[in-house]
Design a protein that fits this description.
By secondary structure, the chain is an alpha+beta fold. The chain has 15 helices and eleven strands. The chain has a six-stranded mixed beta sheet with strand order 1-2-3-9-6-4. The chain is globular and about 60 Å long. The protein starts with 8 loop residues before the first strand and ends with a strand.
Amino acid sequence: MTGEGEQVLDYPIPSAAALEPPAEWARLRQGCPVARVSLPSGDEASLLTRYDDVKRVLSDPRFTRQLSAEGAARISANESGGVFNSSLATALPQAGDAHQRWRRMVGKWFTARRMTALRPEIEAMADRLIDDMVARGDQADLKASLGFPLPVWVICTMLGVPDSDRDRFAHWSDTLLNLTRYEQAEIDAAQAEFVEYMAAHIAAKRAAPGDDLLSELIAGTDAEGRRLSDAELVGTGMGLLVAGHETTANMIGKMVAMLLADRTRWERLLADRSLVRTAVEEALRFDANPGFGMPRYIGEDAEVADIQLSAGTTVVCSMAAANRDATAFDGADEMDLGRSPNPHLAFGAGAHSCLGQALARTELQAVLDVLLRRLPTLELAVAPDDLNRVEGLAVGGLRELPVRW
C-alpha cells in the first residue's frame, strides 16, 4: 500500500497549536501521498493529503460510506464508530439513486435563495446574543455566547423543535461525534433516546404540521410520488440536528480566531466589508483543525496516486491537508481574504458534498457581518498559541474562544 518500512502515524495527527496545521501534512503531500495511519480504534487506514487525490476519491462512487462492511476499519475504540457508522448513518440511503432521491427532497430546503431569505432572522438573532454578551461585561467566551447558541437556534427553527431542548441535543450529538469519550453503553442509550425523541417529534408534526422542514418532508413526495419512510425522516432529523449545529458552531469560533490571531486581517475587513464573503471561504479553506476528515471504504482493488489499494481498504480523506496543497492554491499557507476563485474542499466533493453548505455559508457570513458592525474593537483575550482544541471529536473546534472588546 505504501513503501516498505513506512512509519504508521497515529491519526488524527496532533498539531503544536490550535490554529496551526500538523507539520506532517507538507511532508506527506510531497513524499507519501497515501500514508498508513492508525485510527483511534487501533485499526489501520490509508490517509490521503493531496488535493487532486482527495477530490477524486470523494467524487468516485466506488469509494463508499459503507464503513460497516466486512473488513472495514473501525474508526473509534467503541463498536459503533460514532457518527460514521451509527443507526443514523444506516437509516439513510448511502449511495446510488436512492441517495440522490433523498438529497433532492431534503436539498429543496437548503437552496441559496431560501438561505438568503433566512439571513435577516439569523442576523437579528446574532444581534440579540451579542446584546446579552455585552450586557455581561467587556469580555466573554465567544463560542459559548454566540458560536454555539446561534446555529442551534437556526436548526431548531428550521426543524420546528424547541431550542429549549438544545442541551439534550448537545449531549446526543456529542455521543455521535466524540470518538474517544464514551463507553458503548452510554452511546447506545443516548442514541436510543435521540431516536425516540425524533420519532415522537415527527409523529407530532404529522398530526399538526407547521411551517418547517420536517413538516414539509412528511407531506412531500419525489418525482415518482414516493414519500420518505419514518426511518428516513428520523435519520434526516437527527442528521440535520447534529450536522446543523456542531460543525457551524465550531467553525464560527475558528473563523473569528483566525481573523483575530493576526489582527491586520480583522482591520482589513473593517475597512472593506465587501470582503466578508471571500473571507468566509478562505477561513473554510485555511481551517487547520476541521476534525477527522472523510473516511471511505473501497470494496475492489483501486489505484490512487500510483499506489495500489487492495479491496477492503479504508481510506481517510483529509480535506484540510488538501486545502493547503500548493499545487491547487497559490500561497496555500497564507490566509488571503480576497482569494477568488477558491475551490476548497471544506464541504467535501461529489455526491456526498455537504447538503447544508448554503446554510453554513449564510450563518458564517451573517455572524461576521454583525460582529464587524457591533464589535469593531474585538480582539483575542489570550495569545493565539494559548487557544485549546476540542479533543476526540469527529469535527474539530476550540474548547473556548476568550475575547474582549
